[in-house]
Amino acid sequence: MSQTYDNIEVVISDDSSIDDTLAIVKQFKKAANIPVHIYTHKPSGIGANWNNCIRKANGKYIKFLFQDDILLETCIEKMVNVLESNKKIGLVACKRGFLVNTSFNDEDTRNWINNYKDLQVNLNLRDLGDYQLLTKTVFRSNNFLKIPLNKIGEPSTYMFPESLVNKIGFFREDLKQVLDYEFCFRVLKVKHLAILNDELVKFRLHDNQATKTNRGNDGNDYKILDRLIYKEYFWLVNLKLKLRLLKQFNPYFKLLISLIRKLKKG
Fold first, then answer.
1. In principle, which of 96, 184, 232, 235 could form an S-S bond with 201, CB 3.0–4.6 Å?
2. Does 224 lie in the same domain as 244?
3. What distances in angstroms separate CA 208 from CA 88, 91, 124, 148, 205, one per listed residue?
4. Nearest to 84 by CA among 65, 60, 103
5. How many CB atoms lie within 10 A of CB 175?
6. Pairwise CA distance, residues 202 & 70, whole Å
7. Are 202 and 97 in contact (CB under 8 A)?
8. Number of domains comprising the chain
9. Local confidence pLDDT in tens for the 266 residues of the chain
């Protein structure tokens, strides 16, 4: 309600909460001077809940805000301005700060923040003043699949046109841990991304956050992502990564390597 851009609606998709969530959001709706829509959603993964929000939304742009996080007052205005001013940009994100719960403020957390605070630090992006420009050339970077694998930010940090999902599809609901940057990879194939230099979102770190909970249940997410890159992005990545993917997924390449080794021994 404090956003400087006020032409917004709030869509809340509640995954059958068993705490005080619904009571809190009903109070918010009663106090709000903007449209607030509350939907109950049958839990089937975070991707399904995100997609439910998109399907229920009526606006031109989608801006996520997860229950743990905070938007600074100018966040939506600045993101809309970028998307309206450059049609080649399909998604705009921003730098983010951190709110660390006292019980979570230990050495491991501080080390994590040091390593993941600036996700674009090693990408040498073109800086256009208000934002840095991220294009599909990032797939050729030697840092593409190096930590941090997420080069954009958590979904609370970005905004995109609702029409984008008609072009690239919704979030994959079979992924638990990497679905957000897999989505951004698809955006990069058809549009540029802008990373605002301002910290416009505060990302909360605590013991019960969904990212931490899902980390031990991510199954084959990273194997799926590797295979997806092999199938969909092979010609965009650098030579070293091409060779690794060929060794990993191409039976003919594996056979060729085996024959070469036998010839060397013979």
1. 96
2. no
3. 38, 28, 34, 22, 9
4. 60
5. 24
6. 5
7. yes
8. 2
9. 899 999 999 999 988 888 888 899 999 999 999 999 999 888 888 999 999 999 999 999 999 998 889 999 999 999 999 999 999 999 999 999 998 888 788 888 888 888 889 999 889 899 999 999 999 999 999 999 888 889 999 999 999 999 999 999 999 999 988 999 899 999 999 999 999 999 999 988 876 655 444 444 455 788 889 999 999 999 999 999 999 999 999 988 888 887 877 777 76
Q: Which residue has the tokens 């930010």?
A: 153
10 Å CB burial of residue 108 (0-12, 13-18, 19+) is exposed
Is 110 part of any domain?
yes
Residue 90, amino acid: G
Question: Could you tell me if 180 and 266 lie in one domain?
Answer: no
Q: Tell whether 199 and 80 lie within a shared domain.
A: yes
Residue 245 in domain: yes
What is the token pair recorded at 17? 């909460």
Number of separate helices (H) and strands (E) present in the chain? 10, 9
What gap in Å lies between CA 128 and CA 125, rounded to an integer? 9
| CA–CA dist 192, 138 (Å, integer) | 11
Residue 195: its pLDDT value, please? 97
Are residues 192 and 82 both part of a single domain?
yes
| pTM (2 d.p.) | 0.88
Q: How far apart are CA 108 and CA 58, in angstroms?
A: 41
Contact 76, 8 (CB under 8 A): yes
Tokens in use for 237?
């990545």
Based on the number of CB atoms within 10 Å of its own CB, is 120 exposed (0-12), middle (13-18) or buried (19 or more)? Answer: buried
Q: Is residue 11 assigned to a domain?
A: no
State the Cα–Cα distance between residues 66 and 53, nearest whole angstrom.
Answer: 11
213 is in which domain, residue-wise?
61-232
In a domain, 25, yes or no: no
